[in-house]
Amino acid sequence: MDQAEKLRKAIEDLKAKQLRNRRTLPAIPAKRTARVITVTSGKGGVGKTNISVNLAIALSGQGLRVVILDADFGLANIDVLLGIVPQHTLLDVIKDRKNIIEILNEGPQNIKFISGGSGVEELLRLNREQVARFIKNISLLDRLADIIIVDTGAGLSDNVMSFIMAADEILLVTTPEPTSITDAYALIKMISNRDNAKKIKILVNRAESSAEANDVLNKLVLVADRFLGLKLEPAGYVLNDDAVKKAVKQQQPFIVAYPKSTAARNIKEISVKLAQNENSGEQHQEHGIRSFFSRLAGFVRT
Ligand SMILES: Nc1ncnc2c1ncn2[C@@H]1O[C@H](COP(=O)(O)OP(=O)(O)O)[C@@H](O)[C@H]1O
Ligand SMILES: [Mg+2]
């Protein structure tokens, strides 16, 4: 089999599998492009990777096809969280050694994940021709996924900023700590300086109570509205929960290891709200993964 045939067969197998998995689930309207949600934060270590992975699984549980792209420049660690060692990374696609299907790793409960590896940095160094070839290859993801979650590092660096600005939608994670909130606000300000119409959803992680979480959400929404004229959207909150730490140690997503935990319930609520967006049609200005990487390449060049 030549490369093109292999690719066609891989897509057919994947489609057949998806069809089998979907049979018992509600029908999802056919879409041409995936919704790209970039998860980021001002400050590091606030729970982005845990939220990306568990949210992906919760969305998958609602019948959506979800792919996570691990795009943290420094500490890529979705594989660690899942206890999976990826054989290939984005770099293999960039170097034309593999196609996008071949670098998809199977995660729990039908999610797929792509390890960015050193490919994430390499991506920002490609010439026009290489970018075009890469984008053509990665565009296949639009047909294979409803939602692509891009897990990034903390946002206050140029590289991460490029990823943020390329996204249709940003899920900004903060904790109730004052330093985390001020860094989140600094990032919101940077985003709004570049594009005041960017959709930003705020998620509060590790709050001690729903009252504390809502207080942080309300304050950020108010301040962004008053000082930046930006409408932030509260995505919800995940409470501080030992189940998260225990699951991390077991290298399992908490929603799998502790499905009845508070954190798992919180994530499910957030996922239901996000998926409602998905079906309401409100979300359909999204441009998909192809456009995400085109914009990314554009930002890097300017
Ligand atoms: N809701 C939570 N409750 C308790 N601990 C949490 C929670 N979210 C994150 N943590 C802790 O914070 C650590 C860092 O989380 P991680 O998702 O790796 O953050 P980031 O990707 O932002 O660097 C986790 O290993 C875990 O110990
Ligand atoms: Mg992380």
Search tags:
302 residues; binds adenosine-5'-diphosphate; Rossmann fold; globular; binds magnesium ion; 8 strands; alpha/beta
Give an overview in words.
The chain has 302 residues and is of the alpha/beta class. It has one domain (35-301): Rossmann fold, CATH 3.40.50. It contains 14 helices and eight strands. It has helices spanning 3-22, 48-61, 78-82, 90-94, 119-123, 128-138, 141-144, 158-166, 178-194, 210-228, 242-249, 254-257, 262-280, 288-301; strands at 35-41, 66-70, 105-106, 112-115, 147-154, 169-174, 199-207, 233-239. It has an eight-stranded mixed beta sheet with strand order 3-4-2-5-1-6-7-8, sandwiched between helices. Helix 9 links the parallel strand 6 and strand 7 (199-207). Helix 6 (128-138) runs antiparallel to helix 14 (288-301), helix 8 (158-166) packs antiparallel against helix 14 and helix 9 packs parallel to helix 10. The chain is globular. Residues 23-29 have low confidence and may be disordered. Magnesium ion (MG) binds at residues 48-49, 72, 75, 77.
Secondary structure: elements and pairs:
Elements: H1 3-22, E1 35-41, H2 48-61, E2 66-70, H3 78-82, H4 90-94, E3 105-106, E4 112-115, H5 119-123, H6 128-138, H7 141-144, E5 147-154, H8 158-166, E6 169-174, H9 178-194, E7 199-207, H10 210-228, E8 233-239, H11 242-249, H12 254-257, H13 262-280, H14 288-301
Parallel strand pairs: 1-5, 1-6, 2-4, 2-5, 6-7, 7-8
Antiparallel strand pairs: 3-4
Helix pairs in contact: 2-13, 6-14, 8-14, 9-10
